[in-house]
Amino acid sequence: MPPSPVHPPSPRPTSCPAAGRGRIAPTRYGLFFLLAAGGLGADLATKEWIFSKLGMPGEQAVWWIIPHVFGFQTSLNEGALFGLGQGWSLIFASVSVLFAATVMAWLFLLGAARSRFLTCTMALITAGILGNLYDRLGLHGLRWPETTALHQAGEPVYAVRDWILVMIGRWPWPNFNIADSLLVCGVFLLLLQALFFAESDAATPKGPAESTG
Fold first, then answer.
1. pLDDT tens across 89-139, in order?
2. Theoretical Cys-Cys bridge with 206: which of 33, 45, 150, 210, CB 3.0 to 4.6 Å?
3. Is residue 43 annotated as a catalytic residue, yes or no?
4. What is the span of the domain harbouring residue 145?
5. Among the options 43, 135, 162, 201, which is catalytic?
6. Any catalytic annotation for residue 162?
7. In terms of C-beta distances under 8 Å and separation of at least 24 residues, what long-range contacts does 193-197 make, across chains too?
């Protein structure tokens, strides 16, 4: 009786393309939304608290934590970060919506969320964008108390609520808030990663567990 033919075993795949390259771990969604929601909540809560304590700009004196170095002072910013571009609130609001949508698409449609680092940094940036967008849309409910050259008394305020005051010698740094801090920290971390870690990350092969965990 002739021997049965021996078939070579089929090669076993060493990795799953869907897990290693195409699939985003469900924990990435949770990580992103947890950080973004936490940052947004902290920003809105602190703004509400400080403005309830100190009122509109000029109503109360500076609340010094470290005398003439660091304190709390309410101000309204109709521009961008640190007061740049005053009077362009609606333009900055439109740009903020577009940028937030782009971040979400990049992370979860194009797959950048496979990187834990990018997920965290973009969550910080998104929280900062949404915190200031909330104010630019006037959702805080503030109204201008007096008629000025630019506003009528009782008109809704479409401006970002700033409250952190830092003195550099005798000069005050433009007031800012937690949303601004999240934006700056997120961008700073991205720059550090691009300048010092991008090359080493690209040279280090990652398995499917590292890519999706």
1. 678 788 889 999 999 999 999 999 999 999 999 999 999 999 999 999 999
2. 210
3. no
4. 26-200
5. 162
6. yes
7. 193/117, 193/121
